[in-house]
Automatic annotation (TrEMBL), chain A:
Name of protein: NADH-quinone oxidoreductase subunit J
Enzyme Commission code: 7.1.1.-
Function: NDH-1 shuttles electrons from NADH, via FMN and iron-sulfur (Fe-S) centers, to quinones in the respiratory chain. Couples the redox reaction to proton translocation (for every two electrons transferred, four hydrogen ions are translocated across the cytoplasmic membrane), and thus conserves the redox energy in a proton gradient.
TM helices/strands, residue ranges: 20-38, 45-61, 67-87, 107-128, 156-178
Keywords on record: Cell membrane, Membrane, NAD, Quinone, Transmembrane, Transmembrane helix, Ubiquinone
Region of interest (Disordered), residue spans: 197-256
Subcellular location: Cell membrane
Entry GO CC: plasma membrane
Reactions that this protein is recorded to catalyse: a quinone + NADH + 5 H(+)(in) = a quinol + NAD(+) + 4 H(+)(out)
Membrane topology listed for this record: Multi-pass membrane protein
Gene3D superfamilies named among the record's database cross-references: NADH-ubiquinone/plastoquinone oxidoreductase chain 6, subunit NuoJ (1.20.120.1200)
Molecular function (Gene Ontology), one example: quinone binding
Originating species: Micromonospora wenchangensis
Family: Belongs to the complex I subunit 6 family.
From TrEMBL, chain B:
PROSITE patterns: COMPLEX1_ND1_1, COMPLEX1_ND1_2
Enzyme class: translocase
EC number(s) stated in the UniProt entry for this protein: 7.1.1.-
Coarse class of the protein's main subcellular location: membrane
Record's function text: NDH-1 shuttles electrons from NADH, via FMN and iron-sulfur (Fe-S) centers, to quinones in the respiratory chain. The immediate electron acceptor for the enzyme in this species is believed to be ubiquinone. Couples the redox reaction to proton translocation (for every two electrons transferred, four hydrogen ions are translocated across the cytoplasmic membrane), and thus conserves the redox energy in a proton gradient. This subunit may bind ubiquinone.
Region (Disordered): 395-450
PANTHER family per UniProt: NADH DEHYDROGENASE SUBUNIT 1, NADH-UBIQUINONE OXIDOREDUCTASE CHAIN 1
Keywords assigned: Cell membrane, Membrane, NAD, Oxidoreductase, Quinone, Translocase, Transmembrane, Transmembrane helix, Ubiquinone
Name of protein: NADH-quinone oxidoreductase subunit H
Record's bilayer topology term: Multi-pass membrane protein
Subunit and interaction comment: NDH-1 is composed of 14 different subunits. Subunits NuoA, H, J, K, L, M, N constitute the membrane sector of the complex.
Annotated TM spans: 20-44, 90-112, 132-155, 176-198, 218-237, 266-288, 308-328, 340-362, 374-391
Protein family membership: Belongs to the complex I subunit 1 family.
Length: 256, 450
């Protein structure tokens, strides 16, 4: 048990704790406000990361080092990273548009948000004003990690197992939804690809380029095979095929 | 002997009592250690890789080329700092800083040695220790991903973005394997503080065989060998070193996430990479190789684990691991991305889970009587052996001969040359030789043409 635990149990605030709080609390607030205000989705996510980091340090300050580190590892390190991953895949210019689709929505949201924050703040203040924290000493008696482990695996073991079952179900559900069923015989390995290429009736060589042996260099012009036939394998399926007529290919008399 | 060892081992109560100047000295020492390790590490890597490829490596600047990295660093500082037009300026600036800060911060919970006396103060050779010190290490390595990913994203071009995406997927996957292999260490040591883990590896059980007392190894690298192997592999993946250097694969992505970086920002990325390599070696040493404790032949000398000597053993072990990193880079080719991911999720993770299960089983029967314990272990091992022996092996289908394959081809197949084709010598070669004029060879050395 270290000194911060003793102090927190006695309801006192050490100097270092106070200084850290007053440095990090504004940063956490800036992060929270910036997350809402930032236009760019990635900036928004980064502001949220800042807030989460500050929260992690707050937990450590409040004599809960384990939960603080887990906050940083799991939320900041893994979950926000996955958020960023998706945002980066979406594209870097995914900025919010400033057009209000519902009229007056923004003002209403601000008023409601401030009202809610006021309600929660005053409620907490009135409930906790003058209450001295007890029991932290006993909870951390064997050490913070051991205390949490004891609670998790004795009193709350059922809730813990249920939560893990829920998480596993969600993970498996996500995998099932994202999974594309491919039967074993549909998978083409190298041998199967080679056999399909050399099966009778299939021309194994590279596809002829468009316009080769033809009178035009347009990609819409089908290529000619070495024996003089036209082939449609050189033209994209969506393009209409266009072969010049004999009249078009004859000289127009402009060379004279 | 035992009491002496215990007095040398710092406990959590020994931390947080230093005066401010001592804390400052320790922090500066850890920081300078990171920087110096980078300076020497780059030189070491280039020399060792050079030796492996039978070439000298850098040998011009300073004795043995030792100052080559310093010269390179100075040159890099004077290069033009290019800011791409499409870059996100703030994030582009902060990304390398995040990388370096995370890599250096991890050094703060590494125990460099036991309790020593500095200017009359008894203090552990470690900046600080907390009950969750190993989680601090994990947090640092998980935040280090941000530096790489943001650097890739903020550059505003394709190759860095691809490198950043790769690295985020890679580091998240390998963090899982890494965290699981640390779980075995937690279970055995019963603590998460780094000094506690080093102390737990010290009190080895002593076997008495025929009157001779043999100290059984207490290092977790031996006791928890599967965890150690998986942890080291995950470490290589986590530090983006070859053969797992996919985020900066130069044959595919130019330089990956740092393609657009130049000058000091590029230097910061390089710095963070090498500091991370040294930090990870130090973490591996602490968790699995007994930390600052001397290896066996040295422990015969009674004072091996006291005073400042352990720092030497610690640096020796770190150097050995850094050499392994370099060795891997000099030996193995880069993995393909899908192979790499499959390896992480389908090989390392299941093996780790099964190993933790086995370890938990062994731990739970620890307080049984030795006969019962032996029986339970033997039954488990026997079942495993039987399952391995009786596992139905897949018989390979008999392969048709080439002649059968040729006969079974459908009508109209692509023409096949005869299987016993013998190419006759070309008649043209003989004619060319016959028609050639005899060469007019002049005698004498002055008419030689080169």
């Amino acid at each position: 048990m270290n000194t911060s635990t003793v102090l927190a149990a006695a309801g006192q605030v050490s100097g270092g704790e106070e200084v850290t709080f007053w440095i990090l609390a504004p940063l956490a607030l800036i992060g929270a406000i910036g997350m809402v205000w930032a236009r760019n989705a990635v900036h928004s996510a980064l502001f949220l990361v800042l807030t989460m980091l500050c929260l992690g340090v707050f937990y450590v300050l409040q004599a809960g080092p384990f939960i603080g580190m887990v906050q940083i590892i799991v939320y900041t390190g893994a979950i926000m990273m996955l958020f960023l991953f998706v945002l980066m895949l979406v594209g870097r210019d995914a900025s919010d548009s400033l057009i209000e689709t519902l009229r007056g929505q923004r003002v209403a949201a601000v008023v409601l948000g401030l009202g809610f924050a006021g309600l929660v703040g005053t409620g907490l203040y009135r409930a906790l004003n003058g209450v001295t924290a007890v029991g932290l000493d006993q909870a951390n008696a064997e050490g913070n990690v051991q205390g949490i482990a004891r609670l998790l695996f004795t009193k709350y073991v059922l809730a813990f197992e249920l939560t893990s079952a829920l998480l596993i179900t969600a993970a498996i559900g996500a995998m099932v939804l994202a999974h594309i069923e491919r039967r074993k015989e549909d998978k083409m390995d190298q041998v199967a690809t080679m056999k399909a290429r050399f099966r009778p009736g299939n021309y194994p060589g590279p596809k002829p380029g468009p316009g080769v042996f033809a009178t035009s260099s347009s990609v819409a012009t089908p290529a000619r095979l070495p024996d003089g036939r036209l082939t449609d394998r050189s033209t994209p399926a969506i393009l209409p095929q266009r072969e010049l007529t004999a009249e078009e290919t004859t000289l127009k008399g402009t060379e004279r | 002997m035992n009491t002496l060892l215990l007095a040398q081992d710092p406990t959590l109560a020994d931390f947080g009592r230093d005066p401010w100047w001592l804390v400052l000295i320790k922090i500066v020492f850890a920081f300078v250690f990171g920087l110096l390790a980078t300076l020497l590490g780059v030189w070491f890597e280039r020399r060792v890789v050079g030796y492996m490829q039978v070439r000298p490596g850098p040998n011009q600047v300073g004795p043995f080329g030792l100052l080559q990295t310093l010269a390179d660093g100075l040159k890099m500082a004077f290069k033009e700092d290019i800011l791409p037009k499409a870059a996100d300026k703030v994030v582009y600036f902060f990304a390398p800083v995040i990388s370096v800060v995370c890599a250096v911060t991890a050094l703060s919970v590494i125990p460099f040695g036991p309790m020593v006396s500095i200017f009359g103060h008894r203090t552990p050779l470690q900046v600080t220790d907390v009950p969750v010190a190993v989680l601090v290490l994990l947090a640092c390595s998980s935040l280090a991903v941000y530096g790489i990913v943001l650097g890739g994203w903020a550059s505003g071009s394709t190759y860095p973005l691809l490198g950043g995406l790769r690295s985020s997927a890679q580091m998240i996957s390998y963090e899982v394997a890494m965290g699981l292999s640390i779980v075995a260490v937690f279970m055995t040591a019963g603590t998460m503080s780094t000094s506690g883990i080093v102390a737990a590896q010290g009190d080895a059980t002593r076997l008495t065989i025929a009157g001779v007392e043999i100290p059984a190894p207490g290092w977790y690298a031996i006791l928890l060998l599967p965890s150690f192997i998986i942890f080291f592999i995950a470490t290589v993946g986590e530090t983006n070193r070859a053969p797992f250097d996919l985020p900066e694969a130069e044959s595919e992505l130019v330089a990956g996430f740092m393609t657009e970086y130049s000058s000091l920002k590029f230097a910061l990325f390089m710095l963070s990479e090498y500091v991370a390599m040294v930090t990870m070696s130090a973490v591996t040493t602490t968790l699995f190789l007994g930390g600052w404790r001397a290896p066996w032949p040295i422990t015969l000398w009674a004072d091996a684990n006291t005073g400042w000597w352990p720092m030497l053993w610690f640096f020796g072990k770190v150097l050995l691991l850094v050499f392994v990193f370099v060795w891997l880079r000099g030996t193995l080719p880069r993995l393909r991305y899908d192979q790499f991911m499959r390896f992480g999720w389908k090989v390392l993770l299941p093996i780790n889970l099964v190993w933790i299960l086995v370890l938990a089983g062994l731990r739970s029967i620890e307080d049984w009587q030795s006969r019962d314990r032996l029986l339970a272990t033997a039954v488990g091992a026997g079942v495993l052996l039987l399952a391995t022996l009786l596992w139905p092996s897949r018989k390979p289908a008999s392969k048709p001969t080439p002649q059968e394959q040729a006969d079974n081809r459908p009508y109209g197949s692509f023409p096949l040359p005869p299987l016993d084709l013998q190419v006759p010598p070309s008649p043209r070669t003989k004619r060319v030789v016959a028609e050639r004029e005899p060469a007019n060879i002049a005698t004498g050395s002055d008419s030689q043409e080169v």
